[in-house]
Design a protein that fits this description.
It contains six helices and six strands; from the N terminus they run βαββαβααβαβα. The protein is of the alpha/beta class. A six-stranded mixed sheet has the order 2-3-1-4-5-6, sandwiched between helices. It starts with a strand and ends with a helix.
């Protein structure tokens, strides 16, 4: 699973919340890429989820873009209290497509990456991006949409489970197709 989005939207804290069940309040900028593995059971299968947590800043773009190719799942994140992070989603779609990872359904094949859009920080009071705006963006681009909070844990497990279930389901379908054609 590759995490992408503007800086300080909570990509790392969402992953930490899912993997460790805790919230780290102190903000630490991701430098390049952070990597982690979490063993879990999805649709009855034992899987090891590889997390590639990218830096949202342009300083590490050259490193980040190397991880787009052949990814099976993308967590696209924005901060509901930061209008710029929402407006910037289109540039993330362009960057990913340019590096062979189409995130929008208009460019993605059936076997393309599963994409979840996380509207993060819904626990904070100064919301400036509505649920409808986020939901409409996700629907337009064929993404699963979740309103999340790494701080409270709201919908984090549900978002990850949705993404992982869809990835495993895609792999199972591909195996069946290949076995049937052999």
């Amino acid at each position: 699973m590759l995490s992408v989005g503007s800086g300080a939207v909570g990509k790392s804290t969402l992953i930490k919340r899912y993997c460790e069940g805790r919230f780290v309040q102190k903000y630490i900028t991701t430098i390049g890429i952070d990597y982690g593995v979490k063993p879990t059971k999805v649709l009855g299968a034992d899987v090891k989820v590889n997390f590639f947590d990218t830096s949202g800043g342009d300083d590490f773009k050259d490193i980040r873009v190397e991880f787009y190719a052949k990814t099976t799942c993308v967590m696209l994140v924005y901060d509901v209290t930061n209008r710029y992070s929402f407006s910037d989603l289109d540039s993330w779609l362009v960057e990913a497509k340019r590096h062979d990872c189409p995130l929008s359904k208009t460019h993605r094949s059936k076997d393309g990456p599963v994409v979840i859009l996380c509207a993060n920080k819904v626990d904070l009071p100064r919301r400036c991006v509505s649920r409808e705006e986020g939901s409409d963006f996700a629907a337009t681009h064929g993404m699963f949409y979740f309103e999340t909070s790494a701080a409270t844990g709201e919908s984090v497990v549900e978002a990850m489970n949705c993404a992982l279930s869809n990835v495993v389901s895609q792999h199972q379908e591909t195996r069946k197709r290949l076995a049937g054609g052999a």
